[in-house]
Design goal:
The complex is a heterodimer. Chain A is mainly alpha-helical. Helix content of chain A is about 70%, strand content about 0%. A two-stranded antiparallel sheet of chain A has the order 1-2. In chain A, a hairpin with a 2-residue loop joins β1 and β2. By secondary structure, chain B is of the alpha/beta class. Chain B has a six-stranded mixed β-sheet with strand order 5-6-7-3-8-9, sandwiched between helices. Classes of the chains: A mainly alpha, B alpha/beta. The interface between A and B is medium-sized, with 27 and 37 residues.
Protein backbone atom coordinates (compact mmCIF):
# COMPACT_ATOMS: atom_id res chain seq x y z
CA UNK A 1 0.00 0.00 0.00
CA UNK A 2 1.31 3.48 -0.83
CA UNK A 3 2.18 5.85 2.03
CA UNK A 4 -0.65 8.27 1.28
CA UNK A 5 -3.23 5.53 1.68
CA UNK A 6 -1.71 4.73 5.06
CA UNK A 7 -1.85 8.42 6.03
CA UNK A 8 -5.53 8.58 5.13
CA UNK A 9 -6.27 5.28 6.86
CA UNK A 10 -4.47 6.50 9.96
CA UNK A 11 -6.40 9.77 10.05
CA UNK A 12 -9.64 7.83 9.66
CA UNK A 13 -8.59 5.65 12.58
CA UNK A 14 -8.03 8.82 14.61
CA UNK A 15 -11.58 10.00 13.81
CA UNK A 16 -13.07 6.79 15.14
CA UNK A 17 -10.61 6.43 18.05
CA UNK A 18 -13.01 8.12 20.49
CA UNK A 19 -16.45 6.49 20.35
CA UNK A 20 -18.65 9.16 21.96
CA UNK A 21 -16.93 11.96 20.06
CA UNK A 22 -17.48 10.03 16.83
CA UNK A 23 -21.23 9.64 17.30
CA UNK A 24 -21.70 13.23 18.44
CA UNK A 25 -19.84 14.43 15.35
CA UNK A 26 -21.56 11.99 13.04
CA UNK A 27 -25.18 12.45 14.12
CA UNK A 28 -25.57 14.94 16.97
CA UNK A 29 -24.20 18.11 15.37
CA UNK A 30 -26.13 17.65 12.13
CA UNK A 31 -29.40 16.93 13.91
CA UNK A 32 -29.08 20.07 16.08
CA UNK A 33 -28.17 22.29 13.12
CA UNK A 34 -31.08 20.91 11.12
CA UNK A 35 -33.62 21.53 13.90
CA UNK A 36 -32.35 25.09 14.47
CA UNK A 37 -32.42 25.91 10.73
CA UNK A 38 -35.92 24.45 10.37
CA UNK A 39 -37.28 26.50 13.27
CA UNK A 40 -35.61 29.69 12.03
CA UNK A 41 -36.71 29.45 8.41
CA UNK A 42 -40.22 28.30 9.32
CA UNK A 43 -40.73 31.46 11.33
CA UNK A 44 -39.26 33.58 8.50
CA UNK A 45 -41.57 31.96 5.93
CA UNK A 46 -44.56 32.42 8.24
CA UNK A 47 -43.67 36.04 9.02
CA UNK A 48 -43.33 36.83 5.31
CA UNK A 49 -46.47 34.84 4.50
CA UNK A 50 -44.85 33.25 1.42
CA UNK A 51 -44.38 29.69 0.20
CA UNK A 52 -41.16 30.38 -1.71
CA UNK A 53 -38.21 32.73 -1.23
CA UNK A 54 -35.55 33.34 -3.90
CA UNK A 55 -36.38 29.99 -5.51
CA UNK A 56 -36.43 27.99 -2.24
CA UNK A 57 -39.48 26.44 -0.57
CA UNK A 58 -39.33 25.61 3.15
CA UNK A 59 -38.74 21.95 2.29
CA UNK A 60 -35.87 22.87 -0.06
CA UNK A 61 -34.45 25.22 2.53
CA UNK A 62 -34.43 22.42 5.11
CA UNK A 63 -32.65 20.16 2.64
CA UNK A 64 -30.14 22.94 1.91
CA UNK A 65 -29.38 23.26 5.62
CA UNK A 66 -28.92 19.53 5.93
CA UNK A 67 -26.34 19.53 3.12
CA UNK A 68 -24.48 22.76 3.85
CA UNK A 69 -23.16 22.08 7.40
CA UNK A 70 -21.85 18.67 6.35
CA UNK A 71 -20.52 20.24 3.13
CA UNK A 72 -18.69 22.81 5.25
CA UNK A 73 -17.17 19.97 7.24
CA UNK A 74 -16.11 18.26 4.00
CA UNK A 75 -14.26 21.35 2.86
CA UNK A 76 -12.87 22.55 6.17
CA UNK A 77 -12.23 19.19 7.80
CA UNK A 78 -11.37 19.34 11.48
CA UNK A 79 -7.69 19.86 11.15
CA UNK A 80 -7.78 23.51 10.18
CA UNK A 81 -5.41 25.51 12.38
CA UNK A 82 -3.38 22.44 13.29
CA UNK A 83 -0.53 23.25 10.92
CA UNK A 84 -0.10 26.76 12.34
CA UNK A 85 -0.13 25.30 15.85
CA UNK A 86 2.45 22.72 14.81
CA UNK A 87 4.64 25.51 13.47
CA UNK A 88 4.31 27.43 16.75
CA UNK A 89 4.99 24.37 18.89
CA UNK A 90 7.76 22.98 16.69
CA UNK A 91 6.01 19.65 16.06
CA UNK A 92 5.94 20.58 12.36
CA UNK A 93 9.54 19.29 12.43
CA UNK A 94 8.18 15.74 12.19
CA UNK A 95 7.01 16.29 8.59
CA UNK A 96 10.28 17.91 7.55
CA UNK A 97 12.12 14.76 8.58
CA UNK A 98 10.05 12.41 6.44
CA UNK A 99 11.46 11.66 2.98
CA UNK A 100 8.40 13.05 1.21
CA UNK A 101 6.70 16.35 0.46
CA UNK A 102 5.34 17.95 3.61
CA UNK A 103 2.48 19.49 1.63
CA UNK A 104 1.49 16.21 0.03
CA UNK A 105 1.45 14.67 3.48
CA UNK A 106 -0.64 17.46 4.97
CA UNK A 107 -3.04 17.45 2.00
CA UNK A 108 -3.74 13.75 2.43
CA UNK A 109 -4.24 14.33 6.15
CA UNK A 110 -6.85 17.00 5.50
CA UNK A 111 -8.50 15.08 2.68
CA UNK A 112 -9.04 12.02 4.85
CA UNK A 113 -11.42 14.13 6.95
CA UNK A 114 -13.12 15.26 3.74
CA UNK A 115 -13.52 11.63 2.74
CA UNK A 116 -15.08 10.77 6.07
CA UNK A 117 -17.56 13.67 5.91
CA UNK A 118 -18.38 12.85 2.26
CA UNK A 119 -19.52 9.42 3.39
CA UNK A 120 -21.48 11.10 6.18
CA UNK A 121 -23.20 13.39 3.65
CA UNK A 122 -24.17 10.50 1.39
CA UNK A 123 -25.54 8.42 4.27
CA UNK A 124 -27.39 11.20 6.10
CA UNK A 125 -28.84 12.65 2.89
CA UNK A 126 -30.18 9.23 1.87
CA UNK A 127 -31.59 8.60 5.36
CA UNK A 128 -33.27 12.01 5.32
CA UNK A 129 -34.80 11.45 1.91
CA UNK A 130 -36.07 8.00 2.90
CA UNK A 131 -37.51 8.90 6.32
CA UNK A 132 -38.23 12.67 6.27
CA UNK A 133 -38.28 13.81 2.63
CA UNK A 134 -41.45 14.46 0.65
CA UNK A 135 -40.51 12.26 -2.31
CA UNK A 136 -38.43 9.03 -2.43
CA UNK A 137 -35.04 9.06 -4.17
CA UNK A 138 -34.73 8.02 -7.81
CA UNK A 139 -31.66 7.19 -9.91
CA UNK A 140 -31.20 10.82 -10.92
CA UNK A 141 -31.25 11.91 -7.28
CA UNK A 142 -28.51 9.38 -6.49
CA UNK A 143 -26.49 10.72 -9.43
CA UNK A 144 -26.92 14.30 -8.21
CA UNK A 145 -25.89 13.26 -4.70
CA UNK A 146 -22.69 11.59 -5.92
CA UNK A 147 -21.85 14.45 -8.32
CA UNK A 148 -22.46 17.08 -5.64
CA UNK A 149 -20.37 15.16 -3.11
CA UNK A 150 -17.60 14.93 -5.71
CA UNK A 151 -17.78 18.72 -6.14
CA UNK A 152 -17.53 19.17 -2.37
CA UNK A 153 -14.45 16.93 -2.39
CA UNK A 154 -12.87 19.05 -5.15
CA UNK A 155 -13.79 22.18 -3.19
CA UNK A 156 -12.10 20.63 -0.14
CA UNK A 157 -8.86 20.45 -2.10
CA UNK A 158 -9.15 24.13 -3.01
CA UNK A 159 -9.89 24.99 0.61
CA UNK A 160 -6.87 22.99 1.80
CA UNK A 161 -4.67 25.10 -0.47
CA UNK A 162 -6.33 28.33 0.75
CA UNK A 163 -5.94 27.13 4.33
CA UNK A 164 -2.26 26.37 3.84
CA UNK A 165 -1.72 29.91 2.57
CA UNK A 166 -3.14 31.23 5.82
CA UNK A 167 -1.43 28.67 8.05
CA UNK A 168 1.99 29.33 6.53
CA UNK A 169 1.67 32.92 7.72
CA UNK A 170 2.47 31.41 11.13
CA UNK A 171 6.10 31.45 9.97
CA UNK A 172 5.98 35.26 10.10
CA UNK A 173 3.18 36.18 12.50
CA UNK A 174 2.94 35.24 16.17
CA UNK A 175 -0.76 34.49 15.88
CA UNK A 176 -2.79 33.81 12.75
CA UNK A 177 -6.02 32.89 14.50
CA UNK A 178 -7.85 36.12 13.54
CA UNK A 179 -6.93 35.68 9.86
CA UNK A 180 -8.09 32.06 9.98
CA UNK A 181 -11.42 33.08 11.53
CA UNK A 182 -11.87 35.76 8.86
CA UNK A 183 -11.19 33.23 6.13
CA UNK A 184 -13.74 30.85 7.60
CA UNK A 185 -16.29 33.64 7.86
CA UNK A 186 -15.80 34.79 4.27
CA UNK A 187 -15.91 31.22 2.99
CA UNK A 188 -19.15 30.59 4.87
CA UNK A 189 -20.79 33.87 3.92
CA UNK A 190 -19.65 34.21 0.31
CA UNK A 191 -19.88 30.48 -0.27
CA UNK A 192 -23.53 30.38 0.71
CA UNK A 193 -23.30 28.51 4.00
CA UNK A 194 -25.14 31.19 6.01
CA UNK A 195 -27.83 31.92 3.42
CA UNK A 196 -28.24 30.70 -0.19
CA UNK A 197 -26.38 33.00 -2.58
CA UNK A 198 -29.61 33.82 -4.46
CA UNK A 199 -30.46 36.02 -1.46
CA UNK A 200 -27.48 38.29 -2.20
CA UNK A 201 -27.82 41.30 -4.59
CA UNK A 202 -27.50 40.37 -8.26
CA UNK A 203 -24.39 42.52 -8.81
CA UNK A 204 -22.53 40.71 -6.05
CA UNK A 205 -23.56 37.33 -7.47
CA UNK A 206 -22.05 38.36 -10.83
CA UNK A 207 -18.74 39.16 -9.16
CA UNK A 208 -18.75 36.05 -6.98
CA UNK A 209 -18.96 33.81 -10.07
CA UNK A 210 -15.25 34.53 -10.73
CA UNK A 211 -14.14 33.89 -7.17
CA UNK A 212 -13.67 30.39 -5.68
CA UNK A 213 -16.35 30.91 -3.02
CA UNK A 214 -19.59 29.77 -4.73
CA UNK A 215 -17.84 26.58 -5.84
CA UNK A 216 -16.90 25.71 -2.29
CA UNK A 217 -20.42 25.40 -0.84
CA UNK A 218 -23.29 26.77 -2.91
CA UNK A 219 -22.76 24.98 -6.24
CA UNK A 220 -21.97 21.55 -4.70
CA UNK A 221 -25.01 21.86 -2.38
CA UNK A 222 -27.29 22.92 -5.24
CA UNK A 223 -25.93 20.04 -7.32
CA UNK A 224 -26.86 17.55 -4.59
CA UNK A 225 -30.37 19.05 -4.66
CA UNK A 226 -30.51 18.79 -8.46
CA UNK A 227 -30.70 22.57 -8.96
CA UNK A 228 -27.73 22.89 -11.33
CA UNK A 229 -27.31 21.89 -14.98
CA UNK A 230 -24.30 20.26 -16.64
CA UNK A 231 -23.07 23.55 -18.11
CA UNK A 232 -23.01 25.15 -14.68
CA UNK A 233 -21.19 22.13 -13.21
CA UNK A 234 -18.57 22.09 -15.98
CA UNK A 235 -17.95 25.83 -15.51
CA UNK A 236 -17.65 25.29 -11.74
CA UNK A 237 -15.07 22.52 -12.18
CA UNK A 238 -13.05 24.63 -14.59
CA UNK A 239 -13.01 27.72 -12.37
CA UNK A 240 -12.19 25.83 -9.18
CA UNK A 241 -9.33 23.99 -10.94
CA UNK A 242 -7.85 27.32 -12.05
CA UNK A 243 -8.07 28.58 -8.45
CA UNK A 244 -6.47 25.38 -7.15
CA UNK A 245 -3.51 25.93 -9.49
CA UNK A 246 -3.20 29.55 -8.37
CA UNK A 247 -3.31 28.57 -4.68
CA UNK A 248 -0.78 25.77 -5.20
CA UNK A 249 1.70 28.14 -6.80
CA UNK A 250 1.19 30.66 -4.00
CA UNK A 251 1.73 27.96 -1.36
CA UNK A 252 5.01 26.95 -3.07
CA UNK A 253 6.15 30.56 -3.18
CA UNK A 254 5.21 31.24 0.43
CA UNK A 255 6.93 28.08 1.69
CA UNK A 256 10.09 28.89 -0.26
CA UNK A 257 10.32 32.19 1.61
CA UNK A 258 8.89 30.94 4.89
CA UNK A 259 10.97 27.81 5.44
CA UNK A 260 14.00 30.02 6.06
CA UNK A 261 12.11 31.38 9.07
CA UNK A 262 11.20 28.04 10.62
CA UNK A 263 12.99 27.57 13.92
CA UNK A 264 11.41 24.39 15.24
CA UNK A 265 11.09 26.40 18.50
CA UNK A 266 13.98 26.80 20.92
CA UNK A 267 17.68 27.38 20.45
CA UNK B 1 30.99 11.78 7.62
CA UNK B 2 29.85 15.16 8.92
CA UNK B 3 31.74 18.31 7.95
CA UNK B 4 30.81 21.71 9.29
CA UNK B 5 32.57 24.90 8.21
CA UNK B 6 31.97 28.33 9.74
CA UNK B 7 28.35 27.51 10.46
CA UNK B 8 26.46 30.43 11.93
CA UNK B 9 22.86 31.01 12.94
CA UNK B 10 21.26 34.21 14.12
CA UNK B 11 17.70 34.25 15.40
CA UNK B 12 15.54 37.34 15.39
CA UNK B 13 12.88 37.77 18.04
CA UNK B 14 10.60 40.53 19.26
CA UNK B 15 11.00 42.10 22.65
CA UNK B 16 8.08 43.52 24.60
CA UNK B 17 8.29 45.58 27.75
CA UNK B 18 6.27 44.15 30.65
CA UNK B 19 2.88 45.51 31.69
CA UNK B 20 -0.06 47.07 29.86
CA UNK B 21 2.01 50.02 28.64
CA UNK B 22 4.47 47.66 27.01
CA UNK B 23 1.66 45.69 25.38
CA UNK B 24 0.05 48.85 24.00
CA UNK B 25 3.38 50.11 22.71
CA UNK B 26 4.02 46.75 21.00
CA UNK B 27 0.77 47.14 19.05
CA UNK B 28 2.41 49.94 17.07
CA UNK B 29 6.15 49.38 17.32
CA UNK B 30 8.06 46.25 18.24
CA UNK B 31 11.64 46.09 19.27
CA UNK B 32 13.72 43.49 17.47
CA UNK B 33 16.41 41.50 19.22
CA UNK B 34 19.08 39.43 17.49
CA UNK B 35 20.60 36.40 19.12
CA UNK B 36 23.61 34.59 17.74
CA UNK B 37 22.73 31.00 18.53
CA UNK B 38 25.86 29.70 16.79
CA UNK B 39 28.94 31.78 16.03
CA UNK B 40 30.87 30.30 13.14
CA UNK B 41 31.58 26.75 14.34
CA UNK B 42 33.67 24.05 12.68
CA UNK B 43 33.34 20.32 13.20
CA UNK B 44 34.22 16.99 11.65
CA UNK B 45 32.74 13.64 12.68
CA UNK B 46 33.64 10.26 11.19
CA UNK B 47 31.28 7.38 10.39
CA UNK B 48 30.63 5.28 13.48
CA UNK B 49 31.67 8.05 15.85
CA UNK B 50 29.45 9.22 18.71
CA UNK B 51 29.83 12.80 19.78
CA UNK B 52 28.45 14.40 22.93
CA UNK B 53 27.34 18.02 22.75
CA UNK B 54 27.36 19.73 26.11
CA UNK B 55 26.26 23.21 26.99
CA UNK B 56 23.94 25.25 29.15
CA UNK B 57 20.36 25.99 28.07
CA UNK B 58 20.41 28.27 25.01
CA UNK B 59 24.09 27.56 24.27
CA UNK B 60 23.24 26.47 20.70
CA UNK B 61 23.31 22.66 20.94
CA UNK B 62 19.80 22.11 19.60
CA UNK B 63 20.30 24.72 16.88
CA UNK B 64 23.36 22.86 15.59
CA UNK B 65 21.48 19.55 15.67
CA UNK B 66 18.48 21.06 13.88
CA UNK B 67 20.69 22.50 11.16
CA UNK B 68 22.45 19.19 10.60
CA UNK B 69 19.08 17.46 10.49
CA UNK B 70 17.95 19.95 7.83
CA UNK B 71 15.17 21.52 9.88
CA UNK B 72 16.70 24.97 10.19
CA UNK B 73 18.59 26.97 7.56
CA UNK B 74 21.89 28.54 8.62
CA UNK B 75 22.54 32.28 8.44
CA UNK B 76 25.91 31.51 6.82
CA UNK B 77 28.47 28.73 6.50
CA UNK B 78 28.47 25.22 5.06
CA UNK B 79 27.78 21.73 6.24
CA UNK B 80 27.60 18.33 4.60
CA UNK B 81 26.38 15.10 6.12
CA UNK B 82 27.46 12.03 4.14
CA UNK B 83 27.89 14.37 1.17
CA UNK B 84 24.40 15.89 1.43
CA UNK B 85 23.65 19.50 2.32
CA UNK B 86 21.17 18.88 5.14
CA UNK B 87 18.82 21.86 4.66
CA UNK B 88 18.30 20.95 1.00
CA UNK B 89 16.35 18.04 2.51
CA UNK B 90 16.83 15.55 -0.29
CA UNK B 91 14.76 12.39 0.18
CA UNK B 92 17.94 10.28 -0.09
CA UNK B 93 19.41 12.11 2.90
CA UNK B 94 16.25 11.98 4.98
CA UNK B 95 15.95 8.23 4.42
CA UNK B 96 19.32 7.77 6.12
CA UNK B 97 18.89 10.20 8.98
CA UNK B 98 16.93 10.36 12.20
CA UNK B 99 16.30 13.06 14.77
CA UNK B 100 15.00 12.23 18.21
CA UNK B 101 13.98 15.15 20.36
CA UNK B 102 13.19 14.23 23.94
CA UNK B 103 10.49 16.84 24.38
CA UNK B 104 8.78 16.45 21.00
CA UNK B 105 6.51 13.64 19.89
CA UNK B 106 7.14 11.86 16.63
CA UNK B 107 4.61 9.08 17.16
CA UNK B 108 0.90 9.85 17.14
CA UNK B 109 -0.67 10.21 20.56
CA UNK B 110 -4.14 9.04 19.71
CA UNK B 111 -3.05 5.73 18.22
CA UNK B 112 -1.06 2.70 19.35
CA UNK B 113 2.64 2.93 18.46
CA UNK B 114 2.27 0.00 16.09
CA UNK B 115 0.00 2.09 13.84
CA UNK B 116 2.69 4.77 13.62
CA UNK B 117 5.31 2.14 12.80
CA UNK B 118 3.22 0.77 9.92
CA UNK B 119 2.98 4.26 8.44
CA UNK B 120 6.72 4.84 8.92
CA UNK B 121 7.40 1.56 7.15
CA UNK B 122 5.62 2.94 4.07
CA UNK B 123 7.12 6.42 4.33
CA UNK B 124 10.69 5.08 4.56
CA UNK B 125 9.94 2.17 2.21
CA UNK B 126 11.36 -0.36 4.64
CA UNK B 127 11.34 -3.90 3.20
CA UNK B 128 8.97 -6.26 5.02
CA UNK B 129 11.68 -8.56 6.41
CA UNK B 130 13.82 -5.67 7.65
CA UNK B 131 10.76 -4.05 9.22
CA UNK B 132 9.75 -7.22 11.05
CA UNK B 133 13.30 -7.83 12.27
CA UNK B 134 13.70 -4.24 13.46
CA UNK B 135 10.38 -4.12 15.32
CA UNK B 136 11.27 -7.40 17.02
CA UNK B 137 14.85 -6.34 17.82
CA UNK B 138 13.98 -2.84 19.04
CA UNK B 139 10.94 -3.91 21.07
CA UNK B 140 12.92 -6.72 22.68
CA UNK B 141 15.94 -4.57 23.50
CA UNK B 142 13.88 -1.67 24.81
CA UNK B 143 11.48 -4.01 26.63
CA UNK B 144 8.30 -2.46 25.23
CA UNK B 145 6.83 -5.47 23.45
CA UNK B 146 3.69 -5.37 25.59
CA UNK B 147 3.05 -1.66 24.98
CA UNK B 148 3.02 -1.46 21.20
CA UNK B 149 -0.73 -1.95 20.92
CA UNK B 150 -1.63 0.58 23.63
CA UNK B 151 -2.61 4.14 22.75
CA UNK B 152 0.60 6.19 23.05
CA UNK B 153 -1.03 8.84 25.27
CA UNK B 154 -1.71 6.11 27.84
CA UNK B 155 1.95 5.08 28.14
CA UNK B 156 4.31 6.34 30.83
CA UNK B 157 6.95 8.93 29.91
CA UNK B 158 9.68 6.29 29.82
CA UNK B 159 7.61 3.94 27.66
CA UNK B 160 6.76 6.81 25.32
CA UNK B 161 10.44 7.70 24.94
CA UNK B 162 11.22 4.10 24.13
CA UNK B 163 8.58 3.91 21.39
CA UNK B 164 9.86 7.25 20.08
CA UNK B 165 13.31 5.68 19.84
CA UNK B 166 11.83 2.68 18.05
CA UNK B 167 10.03 4.94 15.56
CA UNK B 168 13.21 6.87 14.87
CA UNK B 169 15.38 3.81 14.32
CA UNK B 170 13.06 1.54 12.33
CA UNK B 171 14.70 2.52 9.04
CA UNK B 172 18.28 1.88 10.29
CA UNK B 173 19.53 5.45 9.94
CA UNK B 174 23.21 6.04 9.25
CA UNK B 175 23.11 9.38 11.05
CA UNK B 176 21.30 9.85 14.36
CA UNK B 177 20.72 13.11 16.16
CA UNK B 178 19.64 12.60 19.75
CA UNK B 179 18.52 15.77 21.45
CA UNK B 180 18.16 15.07 25.17
CA UNK B 181 16.78 11.56 24.76
CA UNK B 182 16.64 10.89 28.50
CA UNK B 183 15.05 14.14 29.60
CA UNK B 184 12.39 13.65 32.28
CA UNK B 185 13.02 9.90 32.60
CA UNK B 186 13.55 8.16 35.90
CA UNK B 187 16.94 6.62 36.65
CA UNK B 188 16.08 3.08 35.55
CA UNK B 189 14.49 4.32 32.29
CA UNK B 190 17.58 6.48 31.66
CA UNK B 191 19.78 3.43 32.19
CA UNK B 192 17.68 1.33 29.84
CA UNK B 193 17.80 3.96 27.09
CA UNK B 194 21.56 4.39 27.51
CA UNK B 195 22.12 0.64 27.41
CA UNK B 196 20.03 0.39 24.28
CA UNK B 197 21.86 3.25 22.55
CA UNK B 198 25.21 1.65 23.35
CA UNK B 199 24.07 -1.66 21.91
CA UNK B 200 22.57 0.01 18.83
CA UNK B 201 25.78 1.97 18.21
CA UNK B 202 27.81 -1.22 18.47
CA UNK B 203 25.58 -3.12 16.07
CA UNK B 204 24.88 -0.49 13.35
CA UNK B 205 27.77 1.99 13.78
CA UNK B 206 25.89 5.17 12.79
CA UNK B 207 27.27 8.69 13.20
CA UNK B 208 25.60 9.88 16.38
CA UNK B 209 25.37 13.32 17.91
CA UNK B 210 23.97 13.33 21.42
CA UNK B 211 23.01 16.38 23.44
CA UNK B 212 22.16 15.91 27.07
CA UNK B 213 22.15 17.70 30.38
CA UNK B 214 22.74 14.40 32.13
CA UNK B 215 26.47 13.78 32.49
CA UNK B 216 25.81 10.07 32.90
CA UNK B 217 24.56 9.97 29.27
CA UNK B 218 27.73 11.65 28.08
CA UNK B 219 30.11 9.63 30.27
CA UNK B 220 28.62 6.30 29.25
CA UNK B 221 28.14 6.94 25.55
CA UNK B 222 30.48 9.62 24.23
CA UNK B 223 34.25 9.16 23.95
CA UNK B 224 34.42 12.59 22.32
CA UNK B 225 32.69 15.75 23.49
CA UNK B 226 32.16 19.28 22.28
CA UNK B 227 31.36 21.94 24.86
CA UNK B 228 29.38 24.89 23.58
CA UNK B 229 29.22 28.20 25.38
CA UNK B 230 27.10 31.03 23.99
CA UNK B 231 27.25 29.66 20.45
CA UNK B 232 30.98 28.91 20.41
CA UNK B 233 32.88 25.67 20.85
CA UNK B 234 35.12 25.98 23.90
CA UNK B 235 36.28 22.39 23.92
CA UNK B 236 36.38 19.68 21.26
CA UNK B 237 38.22 16.52 22.21
CA UNK B 238 38.28 13.29 24.14
CA UNK B 239 36.24 13.13 27.31
CA UNK B 240 39.16 11.36 29.01
CA UNK B 241 41.40 14.38 28.34
CA UNK B 242 39.02 16.83 29.88
CA UNK B 243 40.24 16.14 33.41
CA UNK B 244 43.76 17.18 32.47
CA UNK B 245 42.48 20.67 31.74
CA UNK B 246 42.26 21.45 35.43
CA UNK B 247 44.92 18.92 36.43
CA UNK B 248 46.81 21.25 38.77
CA UNK B 249 43.72 22.02 40.83
CA UNK B 250 42.00 20.30 43.72
CA UNK B 251 38.36 20.73 44.73
CA UNK B 252 37.54 21.51 48.35
CA UNK B 253 33.98 20.71 49.41
CA UNK B 254 33.47 22.62 52.64
CA UNK B 255 30.54 22.31 55.05
CA UNK B 256 30.28 25.02 57.70
CA UNK B 257 27.58 25.48 60.33
CA UNK B 258 25.60 27.60 57.87
CA UNK B 259 26.37 26.39 54.32
CA UNK B 260 28.16 24.01 51.97
CA UNK B 261 30.35 25.29 49.14
CA UNK B 262 33.03 24.19 46.70
CA UNK B 263 36.38 25.81 46.03
CA UNK B 264 38.83 25.15 43.20
CA UNK B 265 42.30 25.59 44.68
CA UNK B 266 45.72 25.28 42.97
CA UNK B 267 47.64 22.30 44.39
CA UNK B 268 50.49 24.45 45.73
CA UNK B 269 48.04 26.66 47.68
CA UNK B 270 46.19 23.77 49.27
CA UNK B 271 47.61 23.87 52.81
CA UNK B 272 47.50 27.66 53.00
CA UNK B 273 43.90 27.81 51.80
CA UNK B 274 42.79 25.01 54.14
CA UNK B 275 44.38 26.77 57.12
CA UNK B 276 42.61 30.03 56.18
CA UNK B 277 39.30 28.22 56.00
CA UNK B 278 39.71 26.72 59.46
CA UNK B 279 40.65 30.11 60.90
CA UNK B 280 37.68 31.98 59.44
CA UNK B 281 34.88 29.37 59.66
CA UNK B 282 33.46 26.72 61.93
CA UNK B 283 34.18 23.74 59.68
CA UNK B 284 31.93 20.72 60.15
CA UNK B 285 33.29 18.75 57.20
CA UNK B 286 36.05 19.17 54.63
CA UNK B 287 36.60 17.01 51.60
CA UNK B 288 39.60 17.37 49.25
CA UNK B 289 39.36 15.61 45.90
CA UNK B 290 40.28 15.80 42.21
CA UNK B 291 37.76 17.70 40.10
CA UNK B 292 35.08 15.46 38.55
CA UNK B 293 34.17 15.74 34.91
CA UNK B 294 30.99 17.53 35.98
CA UNK B 295 33.05 20.06 37.96
CA UNK B 296 35.37 20.70 35.03
CA UNK B 297 32.57 21.08 32.51
CA UNK B 298 30.70 23.37 34.86
CA UNK B 299 33.85 25.41 35.28
CA UNK B 300 34.38 25.57 31.51
CA UNK B 301 30.78 26.58 30.90
CA UNK B 302 30.96 29.21 33.64
CA UNK B 303 34.40 30.62 33.00
CA UNK B 304 34.91 29.68 29.36
CA UNK B 305 38.28 28.06 30.06
CA UNK B 306 39.94 27.00 26.84
CA UNK B 307 42.21 23.97 26.56
CA UNK B 308 45.84 24.78 26.88
Amino acid sequence: MRWWRHVMAMELRKIIAYRSDFWITFLGQTAIQLVVARALWQSIFEAQGVKEMQGYTLEMMQLYYLIVPIGMKIITGENFGFMAREIYEGTFTRYLLYPLSVFQYKTFTYMSYSLFYSVQLILLYMLYRVFVGEAPMNVQDVGNLLLGTGLFFLAAFAYVMMGMLIELLALWADNIWSVAVMMRFFTSFLGGAFIPLTFLPEWSQKILVWTPFPYLVSIPARTVMGLTDLEEIAKAILIILVWILVFMELVKLLWKKGEMKYTGVGI
Amino acid sequence: MIQVKNLRKTFISHVKEPGLKGSLKALFKREIKQKDALKSVNLEIKQGEILGLIGANGAGKTTLVKMLAGIVHPTSGDATVMGYVPWQRSNEYRKQMSLIMGQKNQVWWDLPAMDSFILLKEIYQIPETQYKYNVEFLAETLMVKDHLKTQVRKLSLGERMKVELMAALLHNPKVIFLDEPTIGLDISAQKAVRGFLRQYQKEYKPITILTSHYMEDIKELCPRVVIIKEGEFVYDGALSHIQKMLGDEKVLTVTTDSTTFKLNVPRHDLSKKTQELFEKNTILDLNIHDPSIEDIIESIMRNGVRPS
